[in-house]
Amino acid sequence: MVDLTETQKEILQAEGHQLVTGGPGSGKTTVSILKAAKIAHEDLKPGQHILFLSFARATVSRVLEAIDEESAITREERRRIEVDTYHSFFWRILKTHGYLVGFPRRMTILTPPNEAIALSSVRSGYKAAKKLSDAEKAEKRAKEEAERIRLATEEGKVCFDLFAGRVATLLHGSEKVRSLISTMYPYIVLDEFQDTSADQWRVVQALGASSTLIALADPEQRIFDFIGADPERLNHFTAAFAPTVHDLAGDNHRSKGTEIALFGNDILTGKFRQNDYKGIDCALFESNPNQAYASLVGQVLQARKRLIETGRSDWSLAVLVPTKKMTRMVSDILREPFGNIPPISHTAAVDMEGPILAAEIIAFLLQQRGHERCFDEFVELMCSYFHGRGGTAPTKGDMDEAMRFRKALSKWNECLAKGRATPGNSVLQGTYAVHQAIAALTFTGDPDVDWISVRDVLDGGACERLKNVAKDVRNVRLLERGTQLRQGLAQDWRDVGSYGNALAITRQSFVQEHFATAHKPESGVVVMNMHKAKGKQFDEVVIFEGWPKRFKGEVVANPDRIVSGNVHIGVMAQARQNFRVSVTRAKVRTTIMTPRDDVCVLLRPEPA
Ligand SMILES: Nc1ncnc2c1ncn2[C@@H]1O[C@H](COP(=O)(O)OP(=O)(O)OP(=O)(O)O)[C@@H](O)[C@H]1O
């Protein structure tokens, strides 16, 4: 067990609502878990639990792991601590009481890929977000919201974006539900409280009426302004609940013996106290893809070597990049590095809409039903993939592609109806050939083997779009040992001797996967967007940003930078906080990779 600091001890002793603040690695999560165990031991009545609410499943798994490591916590106390995400907690409330806010009794979750499909026709009517005026943005938002509400109330398909607002309305409107929840959870810990959105805050206000709240926050790790976090949120909490306030301030237990935390603080002010910081490396690279990626691969290999040499098996190395696009690019490079460097095994936190819809296509093909409209359904699933794979930003190209396939299909069917040959130049010829090839496969009953044999046919077939599906689906980790999907498919085979329900099983396992919390925190090499690193910790971190593209010596584009365009505008508070969060995820070392000819503006000292 750790030796608690004086402030941590005070937190354990204090009663009533609490606000615990402190910098990265200052021990907020740790002390709140010990506090939860103490409450479980001393204050809870039979049947009651203490609820630990967090934003992301990844944070949940880190907290669960921390609970497991705390040998001072008994099994019974552990059982009384319920760690959950806001999403999953809200869904539980909506499922039982949603009818109070106009939802039908039978509801299903509209997962992000299916939400993307449902909203794609609204969204594709607008230009890219950057080019929209404020009025257009508001109009687009209102139309999206209206469609979400229609889907929920008329069809019972509820998407995540509606959860917080509806639960807030429900709790404020029903004293009965409020007290039901508070009886079940008399104490609630709110992790990363600085990032609470307006709707989530309304929920918290209602919960705090009868439950005791413990909010954990670092105002300077606030990185979700773009979805409604508010710099005033901590003041709202203080005004509403008059909590005792405990500040763990600059304590740093995560990267003890290094100056990573100090460097993180200096990023906030732009005034660097030292030339070198222990635990921080700056690696410059040349501004062209070959050399940039070669430098990255070199740094990743060196870091991996250092970590393997520690002899531990649970080491972790995060490669953090500024954009989603770069997450994919870096993942592709690590999968197939140049020359004779073998693939660098890693996981990548890419957007899952495309991969999930691609998995649905594979699942559909596994069903091999060969019924009359089978090919039509297959093409329709491909069109859904085009509609949904762009997530919140469907591209015009994808929308056009879906239209083209639908048109081609009706022409195809017209020919068949008239007993004529299908058009030789149809875009569907390749698609049809692949469909036939898969229908002719003989499956083994081993979901892994069969899944991969379908994927291989897509990959090697004559349809370019299906090759993309094969590529996208590689990002799906659902077939790993013990997963819901793998078990479901194997069971299906045992029950009916085929994968007759593969599509339904796949859809269901993604919903369950979304709510599952029994995941281990990431280990090995992981690639992710800087925003996703919040609340996590790794042994080493490599931060890798984009570089300026020049033509005749002039910068013509400067994409994928930590600060947009790498230009110095105003105080850049959000960019500084975001960068600091990334830098301080490391326990031992953070390597920052920035282009030699255009070093990140946040690393240049502020003019005095
Ligand atoms: N008093 C302490 N003595 C030694 N180690 C500690 C102490 N408190 C916490 N730690 C350790 O320090 C690390 C960081 O702690 P923790 O995750 O609780 O910080 P945090 O404030 O929640 O961080 P962040 O806001 O960056 O997510 C953990 O590995 C934890 O076990």
TrEMBL record:
<dbReference type="InterPro" id="IPR027417">
    <property type="entry name" value="P-loop_NTPase"/>
</dbReference>
<keyword id="KW-0067">ATP-binding</keyword>
<dbReference type="Pfam" id="PF00580">
    <property type="entry name" value="UvrD-helicase"/>
</dbReference>
<dbReference type="InterPro" id="IPR000212">
    <property type="entry name" value="DNA_helicase_UvrD/REP"/>
</dbReference>
<keyword id="KW-0378">Hydrolase</keyword>
<feature type="coiled-coil region">
    <location>
        <begin position="128"/>
        <end position="155"/>
    </location>
</feature>
<keyword id="KW-0347">Helicase</keyword>
<dbReference type="InterPro" id="IPR014016">
    <property type="entry name" value="UvrD-like_ATP-bd"/>
</dbReference>
<keyword id="KW-0175">Coiled coil</keyword>
<protein>
    <recommendedName>
        <fullName>DNA 3'-5' helicase II</fullName>
    </recommendedName>
</protein>
<feature type="domain" description="UvrD-like helicase ATP-binding">
    <location>
        <begin position="1"/>
        <end position="256"/>
    </location>
</feature>
<feature type="binding site">
    <location>
        <begin position="22"/>
        <end position="29"/>
    </location>
    <ligand>
        <name>ATP</name>
    </ligand>
</feature>
<keyword id="KW-0547">Nucleotide-binding</keyword>
